[in-house]
Amino acid sequence: MVTDVLCACPEAAAVARARKPRGISPTDDQLIVVKMSETRRRVKVYTLNEDRQWEDRGTGHVDTLKDTTLTVTAETDGSVLLESKIKPNTAYQKQQDTLIVWSEAENYDLALSFQEKAGCDEIWEKICQVQGKDPSVEITQEPMDESEEERFEEMPESSHLIELPPCDESRLEEIAELVTSVLTSPIRREKLALALMSTAYMKKLLELFRTCEESNHREGLHHLYEIMRGVLFLNKATLFEVMFSDDCIMDVVGCLEYDPTLVQPKRHREFLTKTAKFKEVIPITDSELRQKIHQTYRVQYIQDIILPTPSVFEENVLSTLSSFIFFNKVEIVSMLQEDEKFLTEVFAQLTDEATEDNKRRELVNFFKEFCAFSQTLQPQNRDAFFKTLANLGILPALEIVMGMDDVQVKTAATDIFSYLVEFSPSMVREFVMQEPQQADDDVLLINVVIKQMICDSDPELGGAVQLMGLLRTLMDPENMLAPVNKTEKSEFLSFFYKNCMHVLTAPLLANTTEENTDLTDGSAAVNHVCPDNFQTAQLLALILELLTFCVEHHTYHIKMYIMNKDLLGRVLTLMNSKHTFLALCALRFMRRIIGLKDEYYNRYIVEGNLFEPVINALLDNGTRYNLLNSAIIELFEFIKVEDIKSLIAHIVDNFYKALESIEYVQTFKGLKGRYEQEKDRQSRGLGRYRREARSFEEDEDMWLNEDQEEEDVDFDKCKTDYGKYMESEKVKESQDKENHPKRTSTGCFKFTFSHSAETDTNSSKPPPSSSSNSSKATAPVSSSQPPRTGLVGLVDYPDDEDEDEEEHDEEEQSPRKRPRLGS
């Protein structure tokens, strides 16, 4: 009785060599032709891709039209999956009782994988009948060149099989020479394979091996090595079935230990039987499954360890061996997937708090290998595999084990999580968005992943890099589904920024904290803590890479977060880091923000005087021509080329005196030129920097309309949050009035600041004159300065009516001056 396993997993039945139906008598043949069962000729069509991997083209039913053409009709829609004429000279090969493989053109291989052996036998008979071959052969013919074909036709019938020498110790050298000599000829390889199978010669050779080893006949053992290696290179599936059976495979491995080029034989059998232990995390009751696992491991060991690595010219020599391993893995995964009782028990023990650490480690490693095997499945079967794991609760289980202290367990769990994210980011996102109903932020799966990235103990942060890539995949809007309601993107991003973003940015904010160090004169001096630890700097660089990705892809959510947390101001304190790569990451973050050419970002940068740490870094770098220098110059060049007026005005008004001496590029003179051109247009009434025609409410609507994809966001709340943020900024300005440098009567600039790093005395350039040793002070707000209204204009310029009065008042004040920005 045939096991109807194909309904659960068609791939398993297609390659299940052990599940064979009962034989069909010849007297029933006519009846079967008339009334063919639905499953008898059910097949899967495979093609071999450029990477030498079999690709599933679909499932259908095979038939022969006019007895000369193979056709496969899809069982889903009746379309034709395959139509192939049986040509007299095409080499067809029958493998593993249920596979027929052939090549239709150069580099185009096809395979039919039958559900039942009887169906495979019937189609094989049709092929052999067209080609005039005996159905008992496993291959109809081999491709050959013209001269070889002529020689083959001239051979008498009696010579179609190679005559093998007697299997005796004294004839081993002769047998080895014979096997080695046929490898260059496809026809002779086929003849030798048929001879070895027809006479049960392989088992006789293995018996001879045991005799030679008992008598320590070293020369004979060396010949047996050459023989067994040559037989493997015959690349015949029928021989592999014999060689890799339970009673033969260890003797095959034994033959391959006696390489004549080695002084002492390798101990492969000792490793396979004593060192390599088969661990059953849950007892496997299916003996067929256990045997298949053992066989696959040993054959993989032969291919990867024992046999030499093939050169680029020999990569297809063992293609049949690779196919043998491939189909074995498919069958193992399918059999395990069908056993729901087994998988349920594994999950139960994995999440049970009473499970011992060693046991849990073995369970996680089992799932890791299980998922690795699943990569051999075809896409539709791999989908079914991961859906089965999801239904059984793989994600809640990972949430538990990834939070454990065992490094090996966390590493294996991370690998499993990577398989799941690669398979379906949407499935993972859907799970995590359902979690807040039952869990706190600290135990959310994504937060567990972020904490594991932050706490990676590897000095090179190898695990953190892997986890950062997974987070980036989950946060990428490009792989978010767009159903009718288009809510996945907005819902997930709202969830992430509400529940997870504070965890991701915690190390960044902690390492750029502000501490009040001197309040005696009523001013708040700021000391930014900049990390000097290399591992911490690497971690911050990874976090900045993710945040830069967010700036590019999450326009609305990240904008609100940056402005509410003053994130860019905090990030730019890292420009003081002794690790240049970290300073470059901070600069790249600012460059992405400016690259958006968003006036709200520009206003935020101007209000916070956020160019100051960048210009300080440029001046500290001196005349060194390095990546940091080029990156900063490129930032200002972009502003000049794109003619971002608000930023140009801010830079020229506040920093040009410090930058005008840089003449090896024309960037800063170009900025000054742009600035003068705009002033000239203003004087002629052709344009103004200040935007007068639009109200703040209209600007707000324009900003929000830019992000039309965020349909489900509460815009009223966003306006309120942003208004509160800007109100707090105005309060700071009214208290400090310290972000804009003022020109003194001597032509120098004096700086006070609260949003950038304290000048590091170790990295500061020596002051050009004694005027740089100015005392700390805060410039009081001029009584004549009109009150600031909510975001009226980007910048006030010298043509304002009250400017002369302000300059007169400010010249009498003594604000602190930054040495690095002094003239």
From TrEMBL:
- Supply the InterPro entries for this chain: ARM-like (IPR011989), ARM-type_fold (IPR016024), EVH1_PP4R3 (IPR055236), P4R3-like_central_dom (IPR006887), PH-like_dom_sf (IPR011993), PP4R3-like (IPR051137)
Q: Where are the transmembrane segments?
A: none
Reported function? Regulatory subunit of serine/threonine-protein phosphatase 4.
Provide the Serine/threonine-protein phosphatase 4 regulatory subunit 3-like central domain boundaries. 174-677
Which GO BP terms apply?
DNA damage response
User: Listed GO molecular functions?
Assistant: protein phosphatase activator activity
Cellular component GO terms held in the UniProt record: nucleoplasm; protein phosphatase 4 complex
Name all PP4R3 EVH1-like domain ranges: 40-131
Q: What is this protein called?
A: Serine/threonine-protein phosphatase 4 regulatory subunit 3
Biased region (Low complexity) positions are 770-784
Q: Where is this region: Disordered?
A: 727-823
Q: Where is the composition biased (Acidic residues)?
A: 797-812
